[in-house]
Amino acid sequence: MSEEELIADASHLTGWEKHRFLVMIGASIVIALMLVAVSMKLYESSGAAQLDLSRPGYEHVNEKVTPSEVFKGFSAVGELDKAALDEFQKMYSKRAGQATNVDSFGGDVMNDAALGIDAPVGEPTQPAQ
Amino acid sequence: MNRSLVTSVCIAVSLLGGVLFGVVAKAEDTLPMTDEHIARIRANCVDAQSTLFQLHASDAGLRVNRGQIYESMSTKLMAPFNSRIVLNRISDESLLTTAAQYDQQLAAFRQQYQQYEEAMSKTLDFDCVAQPVAFYDSVTDTRAKRQLTHATVVELHKTIQKYGSEIDIYAKNFQADKQ
Fold first, then answer.
1. Which of A97, A128, B101, B152 has the most CB atoms lying inside 10 A of its own CB?
2. What range defines the domain where residue A35 resides?
3. Dihedral sign computed on CA atoms, order B55, B61, B64, B65
4. Contact call for A76 and B142, based on CB within 8 A
5. Is residue A23 part of a domain?
6. Looking at beta carbons, which residues of chain A come within 8 Å of B96?
7. Number of structural domains, chain A?
8. Per-residue pLDDT tens for B29-75?
9. Domain map of chain B by residue range?
């Protein structure tokens, strides 16, 4: 097919047919952006963001996280006899001790006085305008 | 036609009244902030934000560390043990109930921590020098959410101990039945 024939064929193409490759690329980008937006929404709403210590500003915290030890736990199958009960009780009391030995999120570290944003003592009770 | 119009107006007035009552009640609960207090917040809030930033980071690590242990109590101990007693047809209602209660509390803990973390992030994003009152309100809200998270942690600990006590009773009854 000669160049003239190709040009002649192209002159008969509709606008859609002429630009369909560009439209495909544009549509791919739009779909990709939509999927990223949905993923980000799920990342935030599912609580995964709160557990993600690779976020900027959390690198030093990541070092303090205790690596997840290989804890196989108790087997869900098998006969239940005295030995199995003893094994479970031992396993449970050890793990329960680890779970309850820290008073997480307790204390009064966020009170106004600790943060230095409490009301001054003996101040006049003139409301702010 | 007229009757439905009157009904609609009555409902609208009731709703508006309810909203206004809520706003007034809330305003009465909050003491007005003084100029001195605002000035103090403005002067110290950058240091406060720095403290909160460190707390935010350390709480994130705590959430991951404690979360792993709390999850394993359910998925690697309570659930397998309950499955085993059911399979052996020596089930115990109290153990199943306590494990279900623990799972509910664990779900509440995840949700409350998420709400606390979002509130804390919002507090840290404030331009506290420009908006000291809004910053103070945000700190108050974050503090309340942290206390709620702590209360759920206390409940989780109680349930862990309760399940442990029930296991002891179960073991004693099991031994007595075998003899």
1. B152
2. 3-70
3. negative
4. no
5. yes
6. none
7. 1
8. 556 788 889 999 999 999 999 999 989 988 998 999 899 999 999 99
9. 1-30, 34-178
